[in-house]
Amino acid sequence: MVGLRVSGAEVVSLGCRLNIAESERIRAILGDASETIVVNSCAVTSEAVRQTRQAIRKARKQYPDARLLVTGCAAEVEREQIAAMPEVDGLIANEAKLDPRAWNVPVDAAPVVPQHTRAFIAVQNGCDHSCTFCVIPQGRGTSRSLTVSQVLAEVEQHLEIGAREVILTGVDVTSWGEDLPGKPGLGTLVATVLDAFPELQRLRMSSLDGVEIDDAFIELICTEPRIMPHLHLSLQHGNDLILKRMKRRHDRGDAVRLVSRIREARPEVAIGADLIAGFPTETEEQHQANLSIIRELHIVHGHIFPYSPRPGTPAARMPQVAKPVIKQRAAELRRAVSEVRRPWLEGLVGTPLSVLAESDGCGYSQQFARVALPEGTAPRTIVSVTPTTLEEGLLS
Fold first, then answer.
1. Any alpha helices (H) in the chain, and if so which ranges?
2. Which residues pair with 232 in a beta bridge?
3. What are residue 370's DSSP bridge partners?
4. In 3-state terms, the chain is what percent helix, strand and coil (to 5)?
5. Strand, helix or coil at 68?
6. Number of other residues whose CB lies within 10 A of the CB of residue 171
7. In terms of Cα–Cα distance, which of 300, 304, 234, 293 is closest to 268?
8. Are 297 and 341 in contact (CB under 8 A)?
């Protein structure tokens, strides 16, 4: 097969929403730089690293004559292994990937032109915590926050080029402000964004660490209709001993009280959560606690991660659960989420929903339910839809 030629710069993004936001910035920095492919990698699990390697090989096969550069967390955590791949021409340090000088282009790069209907804005990067399973601090360093004025400038830029929904994202979003003068909380930032841009109709948050959420933000999500009723928690597990071994700073009761408080004020809030299956030392009883928290919190957006040992982490030195057991438990967690999610979706049938249209004929409601839209609906428009059926998780 003859390989394709790339006329400008192409960016392949893997992993989290923060990577999506950064990939758009990289794409803008590179502009029309010819014959350049960038793989913005992920290392959160061994599977993510495998997918990174797969993406590198695929990009090289598709564009054999392009310059192929790799950045992101895998390029930090497994730097020597990635650099040794014959397909790779060079690595860009994670901390430097938004600096035009790292790419040998002029500093006054072109403005970001979003490739997505929603605007992902990275308000924070890095992490100061040391969860025993996580390599992200190795890949991204300590926590750093954008200033309020920097965030406002990015929001304004995205609104000017047509964004209808803004998503505030980061590695540990709820730690935003800890390194800024006066240590403002996330609630302060969100309130300032909403006050500064009354035309912004939809503000959504990426994954949040519940124990860090300040009262000002809780009050906003309970009362402000422009904040989408969709709360995704970095929960990780439903058993207190496992949470302690993960070195998390919350227990099961903290999560239950937080969700109950918010849901009491705003019953329509859809809860999402990250959960790890088969963490080292996990017993069947502890796995059952993980399953039961899905039902107790009514988790309808579940991100299930089969545990995989990451290099240099304390959890990798703990007694490991057998891989077939991890796989089975992950499947059981996904099934439990599906059993909660389907009746929730069925409950939205016949309910008027505000939906932001994507380019594929579908869109997302306020609660992040995927909805089929009438033919001809223009992308980036917000439309009212009353779905009448449900097919394989898609409201129509």
1. 17-30, 46-62, 74-77, 79-83, 136-140, 148-160, 186-196, 215-223, 240-246, 252-265, 284-297, 323-348
2. 272
3. 364
4. 40, 20, 40
5. strand
6. 25
7. 300
8. no
Which residues are registered as beta bridge partners of 127? none
Coil, helix or strand at residue 308: coil
Rg (CA), the chain: 21
The whole-angstrom separation of Cα 13 and Cα 41 is: 7
Euclidean distance between CA atoms 287 and 298, whole angstroms: 17
**Coil, helix or strand at residue 180:** coil
- The SS3 assignment for 258 reads helix
Please choose, from the candidates 151, 155, 162, 163, the residue with its C-alpha nearest in 3D space to the C-alpha of residue 118.
163
Tens digit of pLDDT at every position of the chain (396 positions)? 334 445 568 899 998 888 888 888 898 888 876 689 999 999 988 899 999 999 999 999 999 999 999 999 999 999 999 999 999 999 999 889 988 888 887 666 555 555 567 899 999 999 999 999 999 888 889 999 999 999 999 999 999 988 999 999 999 999 999 999 999 999 999 999 999 999 999 999 999 999 999 999 999 999 999 999 999 999 999 999 999 999 999 999 999 999 999 999 999 999 999 999 999 999 999 999 999 999 999 999 999 999 999 988 999 999 999 999 999 999 999 999 999 999 999 999 999 999 999 989 999 999 999 999 999 999 999 999 999 999 888 999
Which ranges in 270-367 belong to alpha helices (H)?
Answer: 284-297, 323-348
For the question of whether the overall pTM of this predicted structure is more than 0.85, the answer is yes
Which residue in this structure is represented by tokens 């609660």? 367
Q: DSSP string covering 94-120, please? A: GGGTT-GGGGTS-SSPPPP--SSSSEE
How far apart are alpha carbons 107 and 40 in whole angstroms?
A: 20
User: In what helix (H) or strand (E) does residue 77 lie, and over which residues does it extend?
Assistant: helix 74-77
Write down the pLDDT at residue 116. 63
- Distance CA(316)–CA(45), nearest Å, equals 12
Number of Cβ within 10 Å of residue 16's Cβ equals: 22
- The set of residues, in sequence order, having a beta carbon less than 8 Å from that of 291 and lying 6+ positions away, is 238, 332, 333, 336
Q: Residue 235: which H helix or E strand, with range?
A: strand 230-236
User: How far from 243 is each of 127, 308, 327, 395, CA to CA, in Å?
Assistant: 18, 16, 20, 35
Integer Cα distance of 113 and 32 in angstroms: 13
